[in-house]
Records
---
Amino acid sequence: MNATMRLSCGVWLAAMLAGCTSAPSKPEAVAHMIQPQRVTEHRGHDDLLTAGLGLNGLRAMAAPAFADPAHPTAAELRRRAIWGNWRGIADLSPTGGYGQAYGSVASVPGREYSALAKVPGAAQPHRVLVQVPDHFDTGKRCIVVTASSGSRGIYGAIAVAAPWGLPKGCAVAYTDKGAGTDYFDLDEQQGAREDGTVGALGTDALAFAPDAPVGASGVAVKHAHSKDNPEADWGRHVKQAAEFALAALDQAFPQAAPFRFDNTRVIAVGISNGGGAVLRASEEEGGWLDAVVAGEPNIYAADAPGARSLYDYTTEAALLMPCALLDLPAETLPQPPLRAQVEPLWTARCATLKAAGLVTGGDAKAQAASARAQLKANGWTDDALVAGALSVGFDLWRAVAVTYASAYGRYGVGEHPCGFAFSAQNPDFSARAASAAERAAWWSDGSGIPPGAGVGIVDTKLAPPDFTLPGLQCLRALQAGEGDDARRVQAGIAQTAARFPKTRRPVVVIHGLDDGLVPPAFSSAPYVEAARAANPDVRYWQVRHAQHFDGFLALPAYGARYVPLLPYVYAALDQVDATLDGSRELPANALINANPRGAGSVEASQFAIPR
């Protein structure tokens, strides 16, 4: 059983203030913005990397059970969150090669330091957590700082940073970057405490307490309802997590203190939204960051040729891609989604797009060709369309657009400009109150963006014949239209644009050329081109046959045709670490001809990793 020790805020603040006075690289903002609350120990049948589950436990199809589903313990929630986040990010299938061809699930004992932190000006905190292995090397002080992918909770990057950093004796620092799974039940006025358990508003300190009108019903989601536009502060979230790591190391190893940025190596790594976050962190000046590795980053280089914001191409895809996919040969699309089940829906979308004047053509075939031609003209490749079928099948485009529209416009509960909300739902998608067991599992089981974990999207614009089309048209109008709401959302998007300070440090950007969720043509390619003008040490690895979701490679049709991206992230970390040691040159730019496993198992030689 984990031993949880409560630390007084005064002790922590005194320690951090002492660090501030002796080290200008640990700014005074840390002392009053971070409120450390918990330290937990993880040894024996528990550990930092897999919560004691090991590879077999992570592969288990059923989530680790709660002894009392309505009242899980903090340790049970942590174990289940780690299980879910590993499976959401990595391909752990027996033929996927994880733990053999690449990656590590070795047991790593140590301590976790967790807290709620606020960046200046934010209304809501973001979570920070530091894993400190018992074999932390005080002679080669290193921190790997990371940010959750997507809108995941605090363990959302554990499969990205921890398998590389923890076995090497580095501390690993995390941030949920102001999103995460701290859902709030508006009906019961209950949310997540710092340890993930359910607490009551006004009685307990909660990780997210929304500014909601009296009598509001349903579920408030932090990414959507914080009113903070957290994406605008991604870089500051990452830097603050690294600052918290220094304070945690001071506590863990007082004999080796103080830990400062000028005596501790800091490497930032992340994928997807986490990849964008660590690139944004490189904008934060002060000589605090030594190197960056960003995989498949959601990054918006606003003024670079070809760059498009996530919201722009997401709302476009949500409208057009279901129809456009009918213009591709059926055998080119992996399953799921099952073509026989979705083809009638896609055909209906073509007809409603034609009626709305968004495509041309007298029949579904011509309408599909029109939709595909529009996407191609706007920069989509056929490879991205094929991989994007997964996001169509899981209704991911709509889910992303609903949450991000609210976040960019800084809308609160009940204020969504297109009338969307979230709640527990009946089988017919009507709203209902959440059960105690559902509410208790949100923190561990949620992805940060509904639907999922028993929370669904409430769409007040649903109407036949194409039920979701009216809501999608409203979401698209916020990107392309006029009016106060559109300008408000567009202003929020503008606040997320990347900047390019002239600070030389190794930066490796890695992207799969088949990525159908964050296509490189809109994100990493224009970013790299613009960033190199400021920092010549930016390198770019383009990986053939890699799409966005390693976790879906466990599906046979996806595993057969795509390679995982995580091996390249780990390899780039190896190479930039060696560069910082002075034992090798910077990694080279590379167009990587990776080989999918087909019907066999993954072998390291298939990756063709640059040397």
---
Amino acid sequence: MVNDLKLRESDDIQGDVIAGFKKDQMTLLFLKFEDAARARTWVKALEPQISTTRQVATFNAAFSKARKASAGDDPKALKATWINVSFTCAGLRELTGKDPLPSVKPGSGLEAFKQGSDKRALGDTGDSSPEMWLFGNGNGKGQVVHAVLTVASDTVQDLQATVRQQREACAAAKIVIVFQQDAATLSGSRRGKEHFGFKDGVSEPGVIGFDEPDPVKPEYAKGHHGTRLIPPGEFVVGHDRVGGVPHETPDWADNGSFQVVRRLGQDVPGFWSQVAGQLKALKQAKVVPPEATTEWLAARLVGRWRSGTPVATCPNADRPSSALAGEDNDFGYRNDPEGFITPLFSHLRKTNPRDGLQEKPGDPPFDENPVMDRRRIIRRGAPYGAPFDPASEGPGGPDEKRGLLFVCYQSDLVQQFEFIQKAWIDSPDFPPNRTNKPGPDGMVGAAGKLSYETPGKTTQLSLSQFVFTEGSVYAFAPSLTLLRLLGDGRLTDKPPAVVRPTDAFLPIPDMQRDEGKSWYWAYGAGSDSAVCRTVSIADGDEHTDVIERPDRPLTMWPCYVGVTKVDAVLPVPDEQRINGRSRFWLFHTVEGRQVYRRIWIADGAESGLPPEQAAGTDLPDRSLSAWASFSGIERVDAFLPVPDMQRVNGKSHYWVFHTLMGRQVYRLISVADGRMHQDALERGDRGLDLWRSLAGITRVDEFLAVPDMQRINGMSLFWVFHQDQYRIIVIRDGHGHEDQITVEDRPLTMWTSLTG
């Protein structure tokens, strides 16, 4: 089995994820990129400095061996400084110049990553609200975070030297340090404990393929009592998961891990004061032993005594002298379903119910594997701030900022961290279906009522909130392979899909919404001349598009004689499918000057008609000056029909986008029905900034109506093409024609019909 520990040899997985830095000193730098090109250069220089799983695992094994040989003392000769890096979704977008997740499944971990923790309902209200955070609320009063750089070391001196080097490298790359968070292991008798005074990090899971199995109980880690081995795919993307559950992540995420970073402030004096007050209430109710102390009750709020000894195995007193106290996980709650020994609201039981979770009282408990195993996270982090000292006038006083820098890794933010936080920690009704709700987590949860259960009696406790969110970020720790690609501005080493630039679309008149598909001619540039391919777009949520016929030269149709590039196409509004023909104004450029002609397309043009019967010209090239509404326009870029003003009172209205003195603007025109098709300028030129849905766009190349989403509940959707991206916007009927973005920018490579 030892020979199967292949993950220990990984030089592709960053070292903090499954090996763990496990250093006394740690600093996190929260970074914002100001210049994408310089940021990519910074990534290239950083990549060789990143600590890998192999490096960290090898060091940790040697450190552990030397520590045992010295009877528990840290070996002073063994020192190391480790560096890891992670990126937010916004950071990946900055480095690659495109959306790394153009399409995400609602409710998925990828959606959570894309939105960011400040947009997620994590119980962060009041003093924990995102607008109060020190970092991570980029759309609020703070700055956006693009990357998180983790530096960990055995000594303060080595940490400070490395952090100084990294700060200088950031400055040279025009990278802003949004926030610096220092953290360190507490000293003396507090070592290994958090600020409330309890042993931390005891219940970490083991990882199959990394931790050696116990020879007697191979489902547990050797030398770690009761520590279950969890499939690595719960923490590292692309590996086996519990029950064979598939990953719904892109290939570029393999060997990476999703990281949660939260600064959690702790009210230490408030915690112990309220514990003392609630103990009095329990004694008055005569539901606790007369000799019970604040330590006794605090241990029940936590689920462990200060040393780490579980209340479940040692309910009456701590055993700090036990060699196993700080690493004992060999226990469960199956024999304590009502929480008489370890309360149902205890932090330990809320975050990992183990073998004691029931659907409702009296039901058999769930199988710990796989139900509980799918919710595990790997926790890293350390305390920050001076320990509480009520007599101190300086560091250590009651007003000192102190707490826990919480860091965890997982492969699914929603199913792991968010599930634990929302469904377990913050839920007063977990475990579920109890007559008396257990209440939120007694240690880290929100303020609330807790049900202290004793045989035949329930006593209500009332506790305030002792832990507050002061900053939060969702990030992704990429593989070393991906990190090298990010230095080149890429997410994959596959050749990028080639998008054939499309200059204009012409809707094939008799093939719109035909058997669930709408067909178009897509004009573009071929190797020698302008070409046209036939594409289709299916109705439905996905709007699947395909190439129906490959590129064909325009020279095969008589109506395109002299056309080398199609700039825009506008259907003649009252001449669609009249006597089997439909007419269009086609705008194109001749010797640097844009002109237009009128062409007709016959029904059945895609059914094999001879070219001269499929399409023709009934008005030769004319100057744009023939359009009264085009005064001052030298070149039309795109037309957008006003959805609820087509063929209304004999007129059709259009927004015309054109370039004026190097800047794209738009105007509103109308075209009348009838033989003359008289046109008029309804409103003069305006800037694109008046369109909320076009924010960030300096030039629109083309609009295309989403065929099955026109005038639905007073709304019409359009694809907006600009450069190598597109977005979806909605325009409402009515006087103001309110517009907004419904789908943010995505790469054009998402269109199958436009690649190749």
